[in-house]
Specification:
about 150 residues, Four Helix Bundle (Hemerythrin (Met), subunit A), 5 helices, about 80% helix
Length: about 150
């Protein structure tokens, strides 16, 4: 089974995004643990958490991209929507009684591969826009005002 773990090469330089990506990798490790334990209840719980968190993360990314006037937000959002549909299909399969151990292995592999590829390709494109947007944001202004 391929291990998915956070590596420095996945860093975007946007702390909030990097910490969310790291959390997704932690969920992938939790899926590994649940698979090894063959605990159907743990598998169901962690797969749901992984999918829910990943979908929420993608929505958060889109909010940052929108605020940054990212020019290809629509295309990026379509990639996220395709991911969302695929991820939710795994949950439906588990809910409909399919072998959750089998589905969990697919989830782990699919989401792990998707995440590593998505971070390295698609997410790297929006980074300059979002960083620039965040530089002029409230937090940045307050840091300059109080800590300059």
């Amino acid at each position: 089974m391929q291990q998915f773990q956070w590596l420095p090469e996945f860093e975007t330089g946007i702390d909030v995004i990097d910490s969310q990506h790291q959390r997704i990798f932690e969920y992938l490790l939790e899926v590994d643990t649940a698979i090894r334990m063959q605990s159907h209840e743990s598998i169901k719980e962690v797969v749901h958490s992984l999918i829910d968190y990943s979908i929420s993360h993608n929505a958060f990314e889109e909010t940052l991209m929108e605020r940054a006037d990212y020019p290809i937000l629509a295309a990026h959002a379509k990639v996220h929507e395709a991911f969302r549909n695929r991820a939710l299909s795994y949950e439906h399969r588990i809910e409909n009684g399919e072998d959750c151990l089998k589905v969990a292995k697919e989830v782990r592999s699919d989401i792990g591969l998707w995440l590593t590829n998505h971070i390295q390709r698609d997410d790297k494109d929006y980074v300059p826009y979002v960083k620039k947007s965040l530089e002029g944001g409230f937090v940045s202004r307050m840091k300059k005002r109080f800590f300059a």
